[in-house]
Amino acid sequence: MFIQFPEVHVPVQGLDEVELPQMVTIRQRYDASKIDDVEGVLREQLEALPDHASYEGKRIAITVGSRGIPYLPEMVRVIGEALKEWGASPFIVPAMGSHGGATAEGQVEMIEGYGVTEEACGMPIVSSMEVMSFGDLDGEPLWCDKAAFESDGIVIFNKVKPHTDFRGPHESGLAKMMAIGIAKHKGAASLHSFGFHTFTDMVPRAAELFLQKCPVAFGVGVVQNAYDDICCIEACTPENMMATDARLLELAKDRLAKFKFDACDLLIVEQIGKNFSGNGHDPNVTGRSITHSCDDVLDVKKMVVLGLTPESHHNAAGLAMADCTTRRVLNDIDWEVTWANTLTTGVTSACAIPLYANTDLEAVKLCLRSCYRLDYPQAKIARIKNTMELHDIQISTALYEQIKDRADVEFVSGPAPLAFDEEGNLLDYDYREVAVARTIIECSRRVFLVTDRSKFGRPAMVRVAHLSDINALFTDGPIDKKWADLIHEHGVELFMV
Length: 497
Prior knowledge:
- The structure is a single chain.
- With 497 residues, the chain is α/β, with parallel strands linked by helices.
- It has 3 domains: 15-30 and 261-417, no CATH class; 38-255, Rossmann fold (3-Layer(aba) Sandwich); 431-496, no CATH class.
- It has 16 helices and 18 strands.
- The strands form 5 sheets. The chain has a 6-stranded mixed β-sheet with strand order 10-9-13-14-1-15. A 5-stranded mixed β-sheet has the order 3-2-6-7-8, with helices on both faces.
- Helix 1 (38-47) packs parallel to helix 2.
- The longest helix is centred in the middle third of the chain and has 15 residues, at 199-213.
């Protein structure tokens, strides 16, 4: 269900007086160690598991969750290939609680969005919301996907990371996959009925019972570093699965990307999505959590969200934590999918609709205008693409002055204004693409620039080159005389076609 929100015309006193500060692009440095040969390391881990011959003739389920992981389809395929070599018949089970609109079709659509298809992985996908009870916890039934429960073995495969809404020795990972992910919508709702404040105790207890009552074959835990690269893969037996999960969580916490500053007036998040976090944006980064379990991470006065990822399939979980968004974002939300996911948690405030503006520019200014007694040119602003990409970010000059002397912060470019197009949308850029373009220019004998007339006069987030670096410029028709004179002044040939 989609809702078309109308334009808003609420008069805001002083909005026109909000002057946006200059921005600096910086590079935050983290531990970059990673696994170069992901498939090779995974094969080694699987080969080290005992009793390969015991899989002969057995049907084995492999869990795939809702989080995006690099090389996800490749890793699922490698696990399936190993099982086939051992004589088993593997199949994939989407295991993501209530995600995907709490439907079998929606959950298949989610994993296929990550490239996990029957063709890519070489095995069937068996998706259903049917579950089987394998016991109870404090009087509440515990559930497992029916196809997985009736199989001869289950491979618990999941990314291990800090959870968005509780703290404990087991958060998002192998234990939570057994307690909630593979429990589908019914089981997820059942365990969430206890409340997030109980999860520190309830998740490991449910996982331990799962290991006792369900046919677990082995587990595979994956940890990513701050650059979204895989830095650790471990296969484990059921006997050491809980210990492995706890140890990998500590590694994941150590490798998690965080800001090099403690507070800001405004955090601009270009995209949120289920591929980044169950909360859309990771509260371990933003400090914004529906349970307030991450309040000690970052002091953010205001946060604006400007988009949803395609991988979210219009699920806006986490948007409620923003102070402001845009009409474009709200019109992109499937509210039934979002409500199914958030209502499962029992935290109805997670479905709240934040203040919205007509454009990105208005949303940014509204957030700054709502900060108390703020000197706008000195505002401390941070702009990120998402909570998985924190290496190259933009911060305002005032915020840069606070951290510029840190050894783990590198100046990249600026200062430059936040740039918006004629419709008030924030202009995007990727500094890595800019760096490639600069290298191409430096290595070229002649440089031709081809652009349409709309680009003249449009502000840019970062300068790729100076006009004098260009030999010839091609555009699609007559341009203003001031631009033509400037081009000729720098010795550039101008072609208007």
